[in-house]
Amino acid sequence: MKTIRIETTNHAYPVLIGSKIINQLPKLLIQTGISQKTKILIISDENVAPLYLQVVVDQLNKFDAISYVVPAGDVSKAIGEVEKIITYAIQHGLDRSSVILALGGGVIGDLAGFVASIYMRGIRYVQCPTTILAHDSSVGGKVGINHALGKNLIGSFYQPQFVLYDTSFLTTLPTREVRSGLVEVLKHGLIADRQFVDWLEKNADSLLHLDQEAVSYALKQGIKIKADIVMEDEKEQGIRAILNFGHTLGHVIETLSNYQYLHGEAVAIGMFFAAKLAAKLGWLSKEEEAFYQHLLQKFKCKTSIPKEYDTNQMMNIMLRDKKFKNGQIRMVLPIAIGQVKIEQNIDPKFIFETLNELKR
């Protein structure tokens, strides 16, 4: 079992990674000061619950645990679902000492963490990720839900008590979910660690086939990169914004597709768009731009925008994004493999032209 320590201004917690470590859950809860009399609400979704909810419930047989299952997918990251969960929590007697446990992927982590952050002005919560994608969302304390006009526009910064990452849960992931999750691993390398990017390129097949040793190493490295950034800038006032690499366009594609594109699938297109834009601005060489496409395609990712998406509409959605600041679209752009910078003064015509160039 590997452990990474996350230190923020007001809170420190461990991220534990390993195969078949869910049996550590009761001990970790007690070590965190959560007694067996504490009411625990497990939040999961319709995909994960049939596979792993009973496994977790069995581990919590000496605790006062209840569960709530939501529909799978981004449809559940909505204010209406939050209200339903809060109603259920009130009806079942959750109080300020209670705990929420997120059992699922990024959607569940975001949703459950957001509910925990606002229920009775904030109660404790724990992350038990079941997807590769959640290695990103489960660490760092960003929690939230979507609005009809954009993704993640309602949310909080709220850190978990700990993250328990049992990699044996990943073996039931559909192939699309595996690819989608690995995109966020690629993102971490591309923003901060060229050597890790080279390792990812060489080990693409092993990762796509869920080799446990390769996956554990990739998750550890990806989480470590994110942890270092979060510990430096918890509330995204500066460097943490580089973790949004690929997300400016990625969120647009998710919104326009009504979330038919998985998060990682959309972010992959967003990262290549950023690379192409950076090359157009002279910050990235053509060889490096080509490497981006090669790397993403090696992980079976699309790099083009659906031709039916209206460019003006894409621009308008970008202007509603959280990263829109002082009248301009703020973007994370690569300047080398493993290095990016935040740029706000981009001529909109370059963005418009590059969007059109990526349509297929």
The gist of it:
With 360 residues, this protein is of the alpha/beta class. It has helices at residues 25-31, 49-59, 79-91, 106-118, 134-137, 175-192, 194-202, 204-208, 212-232, 247-256, 263-280, 286-298, 311-319, 348-357; strands spanning 2-7, 12-18, 39-45, 64-70, 99-104, 124-129, 142-147, 150-157, 163-166, 324-325, 328-329, 331-336, 339-343. Helix 6 runs antiparallel to helix 7, helix 6 runs parallel beside helix 11 (263-280) and helix 11 packs across helix 14 (348-357).
Name its key features.
three-stranded mixed beta sheet, 13 strands, 360 residues, globular, alpha/beta, Dehydroquinate synthase-like, alpha domain, aromatic amino acid biosynthesis, 2 domains, Rossmann fold, nucleotide binding, DHQ_synth_AroB
How would you describe what is shown here?
This protein is an alpha/beta fold and 360 residues long. It has two domains: 2-172, 3-Layer(aba) Sandwich (Rossmann fold); 175-357, Dehydroquinate synthase-like - alpha domain (Dehydroquinate synthase-like, alpha domain, Up-down Bundle), CATH 1.20.1090. Helices cover 45% and strands 20% of the residues. It contains 14 helices and 13 strands. The strands form five sheets. The chain has a four-stranded parallel sheet, sandwiched between helices. The protein has a three-stranded mixed sheet with strand order 1-2-9, with helices on one face. Strands 7-8 form a two-stranded antiparallel sheet. A hairpin with a 2-residue loop joins strand 10 (324-325) and strand 11. Helix 6 runs antiparallel to helix 7, helix 10 (247-256) crosses helix 11 (263-280) and helix 11 (263-280) packs across helix 14 (348-357). The chain is globular and about 60 Å long. It starts with a strand and ends with a helix. The model has no long low-confidence stretch (mean pLDDT 93).
